Structure formats: structure tokens, C-alpha cells
Amino acid sequence: xxxxxxxxxxxxxxxxxxxxxxxxxxxxxxxxxxxxxxxxxxxxxxxxxxxxxxxxxxxxxxxxxxxxxxxxxxxxxxxxxxxxxxxxxxxxxxxxxxxxxxxxxxxxxxxxxxxxxxxxxxxxxxxxxxxxxxxxxxxxxxxxxxxxxxxxxxxxxxxxxxxxxxxxxxxxxxxx
Length: 176
Prior knowledge:
The chain is of the alpha+beta class. The protein has helices at 19-28, 40-50, 103-118, 133-141; strands at 4-5, 9-12, 58-65, 68-76, 86-93, 123-129, 145-156, 159-169. The chain has an 8-stranded mixed beta sheet, sandwiched between helices. Strand 5, helix 3 (103-118) and strand 6 (123-129) form a beta-alpha-beta unit. The longest helix has 16 residues, at 103-118. The radius of gyration is 15 Å and the shape is globular. It starts with a strand and ends in a 7-residue tail after the last strand.
């Protein structure tokens, strides 16, 4: 099982006793970006069961800081959706009090570098809402290049919002 350690965070497999905490954490998010409808508990349970291993193009990990689960991060490379070697990141820090402390930046850096070095990724990409200035700064700080805006891409309260796509490639080197 994969565990990645940084200065402030540890990325590690999610545990079955954390399903309720993950669901509660997702409810804390300002926008329900992780609400898939249907039986979300069952979906989370299956993700937890498979976490810590790259299975069928998906790697799910918990973000632990100060001895507690503060969020989750995932890398996706679904066969048939992306060319080989391309991964997309998703991250959620549950409690707003956990944001702005460097946990998300370090988690993205750790997972990106693992994908580039350990999984032979050629490209790691991620997107965020145009108005998510904090996340946009994180990507820029880590060396991700802004590649463009996808209009009306992300579902949001009352409609859809534009999304900015960022990427780092193996040729760029590891995230800094």
C-alpha cells in the first residue's frame, strides 16, 4: 500500500472506519463538488476498499495532518478517456480551517512527484474554478502551467462555472 510522507502531511490509504468522517467532510465543502447522487456511502466504501493502490487507472489516498484525516486526494487515468501516461488530480480539504495551511499544496506536490517518478506519468493535470484564486496560486507555485479555460465545465450551485486547466509534464520535471 502506498504511503507518501511530506513535512506537514502524510498521504495514505483511507480506512474503513473513516467512511462516516469522509461523508461528513464532504458535507462541509461549500459546494457539493463530490456529491454524485445515489448511494454515496457505497461509493465511498468501495473507494476506501481500493485506496492506496493504483487500480484500473485510479489511486485514492487520504490526506493526514496533525494525526487526523483532513481531506482526500485522487489521481485518475481512466482507460479510453486519457492517453497512456496522463493523470488527472482531484483534491478536497474537508474543513475550511484546514485550508491555507499548506496541506493541499504539499499533497499535490507529493502525489504529482510520485506519479511522474513512480508511475511513469508523462503528464499530470488538474482543473479548478476560475474564481478559486487560492488553488490557482497552488498550481502556479508548484510549476503547473496554465493551459486554458474550459467554459461552463464545472457544475455549481445555480448552473455551471468555467474551469482553468493546469498541467505539469515529465519534461518539466518534478513539482517544486
